[in-house]
Amino acid sequence: MTYFDALGLVSILGQDLRFWGTVMIALFLKWLFTASKGTLKESLAGIVAGGVAAYYGVDFVVRQFDGLTVDDRDIVVIALVFTGEHLVRTLAIAGPAIINSKFGPSNGGKKDAD
Q: How confident is the model at residue 109 (pLDDT cuts 50, 70, 90)?
């Protein structure tokens, strides 16, 4: 067994090393090409959001689009890393309003007058 064959058998959190290498390269490129680096907290939040979006989203996206195959997985990972922060930010901002409109009180979220 060659060294590269052995690396192909390594799995971290259910993903192969090629996946994690693609995530790391995409995160570095995202950080490198970001015009405003922001604070350390904002940078770390963007990195975590991109990694989480790629980890949880790549198989879902590949399954949903008929034209995508497992060979296109690296492109999907890169796209999710670059857009992950924006997806998480949109969910955090719009999520409560959507939940309130679907499951909230029928009076538009206003408390009843006593």
A: low
Among 76, 82, 80, CA closest to 33: 82
Give the 3-state DSSP-derived string for 42-84, with helices as H, strands as E and coil as C: HHHHHHHHHHHHHHHHHHHHHHHCCCCCHHHHHHHHHHHHHHH
| pTM flag (> 0.85) | no
Distance, CA of 73 to chain centre: 14
Place of tokens 């907290």: 41
CA distances from 100 to 34, 64, 71, 88, 94 (A): 34, 28, 40, 18, 10
